[in-house]
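As agreed, record minuted below.
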Amino acid sequence: MTSRTATLIGLTAILMWSLLAVLTVATGKIPAFQLAAMTFAIGALVGSLTWIGRPDAISALWQPALAWIVGVGGLFGYHALYFLSLRFAPPAEAGLLNYLWPLLIVLFSSLLPGERLAPHHIIGALLGLIGTVLLFAGNSSGFAPGQVPGLIAAFVAAFVWASYSVMSRKLKSVPTDAVAGFCLATALLAAALHGAIEVTVWPDTTAQWLAIIALGVGPVGAAFYAWDIGMKRGDIRVLGAASYATPLFSTAFLILAGFAKPSATIAIAAVLIAGGGLIAAKDMMGKRSV
């Protein structure tokens, strides 16, 4: 698999994550950790289904402790912090702080062996950051002291996901099949937290069940496998900068679904985010992969 192909596969994860907000709203009022447990269980099933015809694939679960710490710590740690941020902080501010992770991925990538952070990567990432700020600025309404823990959780979540993504590159020898095990462990941890602090609420309609299944198959399932391939074999800097498209696409899907209204701010953010992504992706577009 070439670096270009792996990068394109990684980009599909960004598209799937763009559906996360719309699908989450469509699930109704299911508690956060219950929803995480249900969707990550489906995500683990999605991965294990790819083992059909590959009986040796299950051996991928036998990984060093470090791989499990990074895998489960990244998936569970990030989502636990993100859900916590939404419990205490306004969604707009929490989202803004959370979407620092694409910039952090681009910057952290310079610490990897054989990687070099070029000026156009930094420019692209910063343009994307400015676009993201504009995208959420229209919803900004300030915050009270009691919301500070949620904002801190969102900020830390960005570092957790960026660290998980970059560490995945360092753990390149860990096969993507192992992600199914990480998803299952995350589902079990989320179920335990749900049982400890939440009251179970089951979906009321068929549409809500379908939304849960779609979440588990896509944004909380196939997206992680695609992202793992992109992080380990693709251009990590391009993927980091392109990740700024996630809040843009997410907002577009919300508008199409009637959960948000279009505005000039979104249009300006679109130009900045798309332009930043194109600048950061200059290597991939102008250089043939081998």
